[in-house]
Amino acid sequence: MSSPFIRPDKKILSALLFILFVMIIHADRVRALDNYTMHDMGNFQDVVSQPAESTLVVEEAAGEEVFITENDAASVPEPSVAEGSPDDTDTGSVADSTIVLAAASASQQNLPFYRRWWFSLLVILLAAPFLYRIFTIRNKQLEKIIGDHAAKISELHQLVKQKEELIVLKESEFHEKLVEEEELKYHAIGLSKFSEIMSGSKGELRKLGQHLIYELVKYLGINMGAIYIVKGEELSDQVLELLSAYAPDAKQLQAKIHPGEGFVGTCFNEGQMMEITDVPTTYTKISSGLGEALPTYLAFVPLLQDEIKLGVIELASFKKLEKHKLEFIQKLSQNIASFIAIRTAAARVQEMLARSQTQAEELQAQEEELRQNLEEMQATQEELNRQMEKNKLIQVDLAKEKYLMDALMNNIPEYIYFKDRDSKFLKSSHSLVRSFGVSKQEDLLGKSDFDFFGDEHARPAFNDEQEIIKTGKPILDLVEKEVKKDGSVSWVSTTKMPLYDQHGKIVGTFGISKDITKAKKTEMEMQEKTEELKAQEEELRQNLEEMQTVQEEMERQKAELDWEKHLMDTLLNNLPEYIYFKDKDSKFLKNSLSHAKLFGFSNPKQIMGKSDFDFFAEEHARPAFEDEQKIIKTGKPIINMVEKEVRKDGSLTWVSTSKMPLCDKQGKIIGTFGISKDITETKKMEMEIQQRNKELQTREEELRQNLEEMQTIQEDLQRRILENEKIKTEFQQKEKELLKKIEELKKNKR
């Protein structure tokens, strides 16, 4: 930007230069004239020697004319010449010189005033104060301009400094807000991530816990983590068992911790987060593929669900966790505790339903089996009584036949025989003859059992008879299995005794064998039936014991069911999440107390038979009804669906809903049940984070524009400083030139 003083300075300088130029020209002309009059004497002598002319014209070397009148020439005194001068030529020369000087003097007196030397001196004397004043004013103006520019530069420097301080302050505020936003973003992303993990989990709780602890350790950037959950209903039976762990040691895998025992038990008892920086050397070491190392920092966070203690999260690291990460862990522990409580309650309800259904089916089957066993036992008992009566009759008949054996030998059906010492037949009953298939008794004489039976029967019978002959000890009622050579099998009851002669010497054996094949078969059948009966009696006894056990088990199960019902009621009456059961028409069958209070009722029974259309606007009630009807048709559940609930009064809430099919004992879908968690605050936080991100982007854009403006101002300031430096340089240069010209003028004047 040009200064307003530049153009006037050029005009003044031009005027001064013009005046100096005129003065220099004038001085040159005067000096030329003087030179002309001093050096051209010959010309002036010629002029003087012409008296006839009234006017003399003298031409200067420069071409200007000088007029000398006659009066001027006459007034010039003639030089006196001494008479008798030896040299007339010299006398004439002096006279001529005198004439020339007089002519020159006359010519100078006739010049105009502006061509006089005193006029040039006067002009210089008059111009000197004016020039001095001009230079003084110009210097003051230059000093003022420089001072103004210095003030402006100082002001600009101050403004730049203020802007820099403002930028630093804004950068500090921006950094703080950025850190705060990063922490909020860290919390929101982490909570959303782990909510997705928990909502997407459909397997068993242990696999979910392993996935959770792995992702948690990786997300926090620590080295070891573990989740403990409490087992046992009674306080005296409670114990903390390891659900899942990342980088554990062998001791930790088998650990069962009682409340109040160690850091984990102490955290569980107190229900508050604990931080340990002075880790004992005997504590669990972090294991990896490179070995084991003792952590330097421990954190224990309890899993609390409405002040109900469900477990503890243990974290170990080689550095202390930041404050926002600890706050994130505390928030996440509530979600994990709620999810574990829900999964545990749902698993318990499913287990109770399955157990009740299985026990009812087993009890029904056992009752049917017991009824059949009782009927079979009654029929078996009657058959056993009949067989026992038959056995009594058979025994009477056998005794009678034995009594009449000698008299009825030829008609007795039993086999009576007498043998010699070589076990060869001496005499036999007619029945034995018939049994061997011979026509008369004589055909048996001299023969032995080897002639009619196989070696399987004949050899034992021969040995028995030889033993009787040796020892004299009889064999009574020996039941024998007789296998004849034709392969036929029969059973006989044999009594063998030693045969004495008149002198009491054993000469052979005699015996009687009764065909008891039918009786044996009957006996074997009876024995089998008796064994079966005994087995049935044993089975009946066991069944009675089992029935008693089942009765006790049913009583215990009833007590468990009562306890489970109490737990279910406790869960429904105290859980902050909204739990509800609906029929096929999506009408409420049972609700939690929190769900009833949501609709303004004090008792859950007050909303039985109602539906979502009675409490919510069509915008929410219609999609919810369609989702439930789809679940009833397909049997596919809906897990962790985020819903926007608009009530009839216009109030708005956000919930995370899981809905599943409700089945009866036969597995038929009879409705739906679900659980909804109020996530309005979380949703508001998420929306607030999004709004803050937009504001942050806007602030970043404003800061960027401010920086660009500052950069533009700084560039403009640099450009102005350069221009000022350039102007100052030009002024200094012109001042030097002017001083130089003044010096030249002074020299010319001298």
Report on this structure.
The chain has 750 residues and is an alpha+beta fold. The protein has five domains: 6-120, no CATH class; 124-187 and 688-749; 203-347, GAF domain (Beta-Lactamase), CATH 3.30.450.40; 404-515, 2-Layer Sandwich (Beta-Lactamase); 575-678, 2-Layer Sandwich (Beta-Lactamase), CATH 3.30.450.20. 58% of the residues lie in helices and 18% in strands. It is built from 15 helices and 20 strands. It has helices at 6-39, 41-48, 70-74, 88-109, 117-199, 205-220, 250-253, 262-270, 323-403, 430-435, 455-471, 517-574, 593-598, 618-634, 680-749; strands spanning 55-59, 65-69, 224-231, 239-246, 256-257, 274-276, 286-288, 291-293, 297-305, 308-317, 415-420, 425-428, 475-483, 489-500, 506-515, 578-583, 588-591, 638-646, 652-663, 669-678. Strands 5-4-3-10-9-6 form a six-stranded antiparallel beta sheet. A hairpin with a 5-residue loop joins strand 13 (475-483) and strand 14 (489-500). The relative contact order is 0.06.
